[in-house]
Queue: 3 jobs
Job 1
Amino acid sequence: MKRVITTLALTLLCISLSIAKSPPKREFRGAWFPTVVNSTWRNMSVEEIKTDIINYLDLFKKLNINAVIFQVRPQGDAMYISEIEPWSRFLTGKQGEAPDPMFDPAKFITEECHKRGIEMHAWFNPYRVTSNKNEVLSKDHLFFKRADLFVTYGGQIYFNPGKPESREHTVKVIADFVRRYDIDAVHFDDYFYPYKLPYTDFPDEETFLEYHEKDGFSRFSKDEWRRNNVNLLVKELSRTIKSIKPWVRFGISPFGVWRNSYVDTSGSNTTALQTNYDDLYADILLWLKEGWIDYNAPQLYWEIGHKRADYLTLVNWWASNSYNVNLYIGQNIRNQINIKNSDGDIVNQLYRKMELVRENPETGGNIWWSGLSFPDQKELMDSLILNYQRYPSLVPLYKKIDTIPPEPVKEISYKKGYLSWDHNGSQDPLQKPHFYCIYKFRADQETDLQDPSCLLAVTGEKNFYVGKERRVRYIITVLDRLQNESSGSAVVGR
C-alpha cells in the first residue's frame, strides 16, 4: 500500500512539475475586481482609495495577471463620471454623492492598468438596481422618472428586461462609457434574469402580455420570450461596441452550467439546481454560435468530483461547445488548495485544474474570483508566482477581429540601467502600440521570442529599468490593441 501511495505522489509531482516547466507564451490571466457591496471605500479619502487600487494592481502585476475586470456599474449606478446614472454608493456611501475632491475610479484604474501592461475590462451589471429593500436610491435615479421600467423581486429592484426602453437604456450607458474610456473590453457576469426564488415567479406577466405578440411569441412561450429579451440586449451591445471601437472586446462570464443533460441531451452531465438557459434565460450557446461575444468565461467554482457540477465534466463540456470563441475558465480562489473534496478529504486540486485548462486546446486561460481575495491565499499566490504564472504572458489572440501585427520599434537605447525606445505609431487604431514586451537573453543564449522564460516584462511605458547586468541582450516588441505582436527591435546588449 505504501508503494502505491508513493508512486501516486511521485506521479502527481511529475505532472505538477511538467506544467510548471512549460507555462504558455499566451494565456489569459484575469482577476475580477468587484465593487458591489464594497464597504471600505466609503470610509476612505480619495488618496486612500487610489492607494488601495494601486496596492491591488501591484499585487496583480507580481502574479503576472494580464487583465483586470473592474466593476464600473455594480447596480444601475456608476463608478465613473456619468451624466446618465448616479455615482455608486459603494464609492462614497451614498448613491448620487460625488467624491470630494473629484475622482474617477474607472479612468484611474484604466490608466494604472495600462502603465503596467495590464488590460482593463469594464464590468457592467445589466439589470440589478438594488441588493436589498433598505437601500436608498438617488433622487436623480431613472427609477423616479420611469418607474414603469422596473420591477421588484425578492426585495430587490431590477430593470425589467422585457421593456425595450430598459434595454435601450443599458445600451446607451455602455455606449457612452466605451466612447469616453480607453478600455480593452466590456464584461458581463452571470446576472441576467435574477436567480429564481422558491415558488416565486419573476413579476413580468403584465409586460409579457403587452409585448409577446409584438415580439413574435405565443401566450404559452414566456420562457422563450424572456430568452429573446436577453438575446436582443446581447446582440445590440455586440453591434454597438464594435461600431464605436472595433478593438473593444465583449466578454461574458456565465453561470457554470448551461443546461443539465437530463433536460437536454446537448447539456452537460450535471444536476445543477439552476442553469443559464432554464432559469437565468441566458442562452450563452446561441451567443457563441452567432459570434456576438468575443470571449466566454464560465464560472466553474466547484471542485473536481462535485456531485452536481463536477469541474472536470464542465471544463470538457464548455471546451466541446466553444464555437471557436475564446474560452477562459472562471476559477474560485478559495476552491483550489486545502479544500474538502466529495469524500471529505482535504486536498490540493490546483495542479489538476491547471493541467486541465492548459492541456485542452480550446481553453485559453483563467479568471480568478475574486482578485481581492489573493492576499488571504498565500499558498495559492506562491504557487502562481513560483510555478504556474511565474513568467509574464500575453493574452490569447482574437483572430476574428484582427491578426495584423503592428510595426516594430525602430529606436532603442540603453543608459544607466534603463532601456528606452520610441515608436511612430500608426494611423490605424487597431495597429497603434498599446503595450511593449521586453525580452532578455544571456550572451550565449539563442534569441527565441517564443520562449516565455525570456519575456522579462510587459509594460505600457516607453522605458523600463533592467539594471546593469552584463553579458545580456535585450529586444523590444510592440503589442497592438488585440495584442498582436510585432517583430523584434534591434538588439541592445551589455
Job 2
Amino acid sequence: MPAFTLSFLLLCQAPQQPAYDPLARTGSPPPSQSFTAVDATRERTLPLRVYLPEAKSAAPVVLWSHGLGGSCDNSKYLGEHWAARGYVAVFLQHPGSDESVWRGVALRDRMPAMQKAANGENLRLRCQDVTFVLDQLERWQAEAQHPLHGRLDLEHVGMCGHSFGALTTQSVCGQSAPLIGRKWSDARLDAALPMSPSRPRGNTAADAFAGVTIPWLLMTGTADDSPVGDQTPESRREVFPALPTTIDRYELVLDGANHGVFGEGGGRLFGGKPDPAHHRAILALSTAFWDTYLRSDAAAKEWLQSDSARKALAAADQWQLGKAVATSPATKSDR
C-alpha cells in the first residue's frame, strides 16, 4: 500500500478532539463547604463558602467578592459551574458591607444603611480581606490535616466580584483610587473579572488604571443601574476604554440585563425579567477566561478571541476585546 494512502487512512481513524466548550461539565462537584478565616490582627472573622472540584489534585483558585449587602452564599451557580470545570471557587464574605447591613433593619431604614456602608473604609477592609484570605489559603494548603491541604494551586489565582465586589476586584487587581488611600494590588492575582464595574473617582482614568498588568474581563448590562454608588450603565462602560493596551481586555454587555443579572435570580431582585441566556453567557465567557489565563489553555484562548465567543451570545449582546500590544511579559515579581 502506498505510504500516502496509509497515512491518509491513519489520519481518518485518529480520534478527533472535541471542540472547546466552556459550558461542558466533566462531572458534578461535591457539595460546597463552609470555612471561617479569623484575622486576629484586625479582629475580623470572614465566612467563606468553598466549591471544590471532584479531582483531589491541586486546582487553580478563583476568589469571589459579593456586592453590598450580600454574602458568601450568593451566586452559587457560578461557584458550582467553576468547580465542575476544575476550579476551587472561594466565595468571601465581608463583615460591615455584607447582609448584616440590612438584616433586622426596618424596611424604611435599609437603603440609608446600605448607602452608609458603601464607603472608603469598607472598601479598604475588603481589599485587606482578599490579601488575608490568600495568606490563609497558603497556610491551609500547607496544613496536613486541613480539608484544603493539597487542593489549591495558588500559583494560578483569579479574582472576581459583583458591584462592590467588582470595585474590590478592581482595587486588588491594579486600579488605584484616592478613596482608599493607597494601592491595594496583590501580585498573587493573575486575572480579574469585575461584574458591574465602577468608573474611578478622584483621579483620571489614565492614572487609575496605569498600574493594571493582568488581563481583565468586564461584564455589565444595558440596564445595569444601581441605587447605591452613583453608577449608570454608561459609566460602567467607561472602564474598558481606559484599561492599558498592554493587557488583554474584554467587555461583555448583556442586552436588557439589570444590576441583579449576576445573582441567582438573574435580575428579578431589581424588577427585571430573568433571561436564562444571560447566565449561559456569563458562565461561558467567565469559564473561557479562566481557562485562558489560569490554565494557559490554547483552545480556550482561541475560542475567547474568535467568533466562537460571539456565537455564545444573543444577537443584541455586545462583545469586544482588545489584545495586548507586544511587550515584555511581566512576572509576578514585576507587578
Job 3
Amino acid sequence: MKWLLPGGSYVSRLVPSGKVTGLGDTGTVHLVEGRDQKVARMLDALFDPADRSVISIREAYVQITGDSRFTGNVRSCDQGLLRESLGSQSFADVLGDSISRMMIRDYNTTGIYDVWRDLVRIVPVSDFRTQERVRFGGYGDLPGVAEGEPYMSLDSPTDEKATYAATKRGGTEDITLEMITNDDVGVVVDVPRKLARAAKRTLSKSVLDFLTNNPVIYDGVALFHADHGNLGTAALSSTSVGVGRKAMRSQTEKDSGERLGIGPRFLWVPDELEETAFNLFRRSTNLDADFVQSLQLAVRPVWCWSDTNDWCLSADTNDVPVIEVGFLKGQQEPELFVQDSPTSGSLFSNDIITYKIRHIYGGAVIDFRGLYKGAVP
C-alpha cells in the first residue's frame, strides 16, 4: 500500500503485501466524486467559454434542484436531489461560488487595465483608519573632524507624510427566475466577466487619475508643479522626452539637496500618441541609436485619457515608489456575496437572487520625484 506524503513522495512498506486488506474480495480503493463536486464542476463549465459540455442554465437548474416547473420554491424541489447536489448550501450559493471563481480568474487575466501596476507599490492595510506614510529626508555631507576635536551635531532630516484610507467600492447584480426559466445563458454567463472588468477598470482609473487630475499632495502643492520641477508644456518629441528625463534626474533628496539621479522607465501616453511614442525609440536608417532611442522606455498607452496631447514619464517603482495602493487585509481581488434567503429578501419577494461585489482599497501619491508631465496647452 502506498501513502502519498505532503512532499509528494510515497511510502509503500507500511503493509508488507502492498495491498489493502479487510475490504472484502478487492484490494483496490476508488475515490468517488460526490454529487456536490459534480454540480460545482457543471456550473464552472457553464461559465467557461472553452468548455461546451454545459450550455444551458435551465437544464443545470433542473438537474440540481429537480424543480422542473421553475417555481423557485424549495417545496417544489426534489429534496433528496437537492441535498445530494448542494449539501448544506443553496442553489444561489453554489451558483455564486462558480460566478466568483470565474470572476477571479478573469480579474487575474492580464489586460489593458493592468497598466496601473507599473505606477504603484502594493501593501496590505489592516483597517479603514487613515494610513500614514512618513518619509524622512537625508543628511548632508559629513564634515571632517580634526584631531582632538569633537564631532559636531548633524542637521536632522525632516519628514514628509502622505495619508489615505481604504474605501469600499461595489454594487449589486441580480439573476432572476425568468433568466433561468428562459435559459438566458448568455446574460448569466456574462455576469462574472463584466463584474471582473468593472472592478479592474475602476481600480486602474483610480490610480491613473493621479496623473490626469493633478491633485494636491502631501506637501500642499499640486503633484505636477513648477515648485516640484516636474512639469513641462512641450508636445511629445525626442527633445521633450530628453528634457523630462533631465528634470527627473535633477530631482534632489529632501533636506540634503543631493541629486537623486533617477531617470524614467515608462512613458505614459493617450491612445492617440501611442504610434508617436513608439516611433521615438525605433531606429529606421540610422545604424546607431540616438540618445533618446538608447533609453528604450516602455510605452504605456492609457485607454481612458481624453486629452490627446498630454504625456507623462515615471520611474521604476523599485527606485521611487511614486504611488502606494493599500488593499484591506491584503485582499487584492474583489469579493462576491449572495443574498439567498428563501423566506426573506429579494429571492422571497421578487424571485431574484442578488449578488454583491465588494472591492476595498485606497491609495495616495507618496513621492512626486518619480514623475514628470508634459501638460501641452
